Amino acid sequence: MKTTDELVRELCDRAAIRELSDRYCDCIWRKDLDALVSLFTDDGAFIVEGVEREAISHGRARLKKVYQKSLDELDPRLFIHTHIMDFIDENRATGRCYVEVFSAKIEMRRIGLGYYDDEYAKVKDKWKFARRRYFLDTIDSKISLRKTFMP
After folding, report:
1. pLDDT of residue 146
2. pLDDT for residue 129
3. What is d(CA 102, CA 14) in angstroms, rounded to the nearest whole number?
4. Count of C-beta atoms within a 10 Å radius of residue 129
5. Where are the domains positioned within the chain?
6. Which residues contact 89 (CB under 8 A, 6 or more apart)?
7. By the 8 A CB rule, do 105 and 74 touch?
């Protein structure tokens, strides 16, 4: 059985990880690239899982380029929900949350539906994305998220 201190720590960690995804959406809406990439560990990765291949971006410099391209091409608006997480230890966790992607460039039309499969790492006392993998479930045929993220 967990102690009260362990339960409180876990609740605080869960809230911090949930807030990490909230901040991710907020940074995208505000187009704050510096704050967005700061949500990742220094060697963090963003991966878009495609039908036949995947696009992987490692490190904050590359992440900033990929997100800038996404913001320029799509002006995305994300809605994240149903956040599930599991702790590996005090400094590592995994999680999954579901996302709907809309584009402000095309009358807030939904352009994607899928989920993030995440790995989180606690750096100093802050939770960060160590890896964020986006699985596309549904994608609009006119605005291709694959074109944006796949080289």
Report:
1. 52
2. 98
3. 27
4. 23
5. 4-149
6. none
7. yes
Interval 80-107 mean pLDDT: 93
CATH tag, 4-149: 3.10.450.50
Long-range contacts of 20-23 (CB under 8 A, 24+ apart): 20/120, 20/127, 20/128, 20/129, 21/80, 21/83, 21/97, 21/116, 21/118, 22/80
Residue 139's pLDDT is 60
pLDDT in tens, 39-50: 999 999 999 876
Mind giving me the DSSP string for 56-119? EEEHHHHHHHHHHHHHHHH-EEEEEEEEEEEEEETTEEEEEEEEEEEEGGGTTEEEEEEEEEEE
Tokens of 78: 């994300």
* pLDDT at site 59: 92
The position carrying tokens 């790995």 is: 119
Contacting residues for 121 by C-beta, under 8 A, at least 6 apart: 41, 91, 92, 127, 128, 130
CB atoms within 10 A of CB 109: 12
Q: How far apart are CA 131 and CA 44, in angstroms?
A: 6
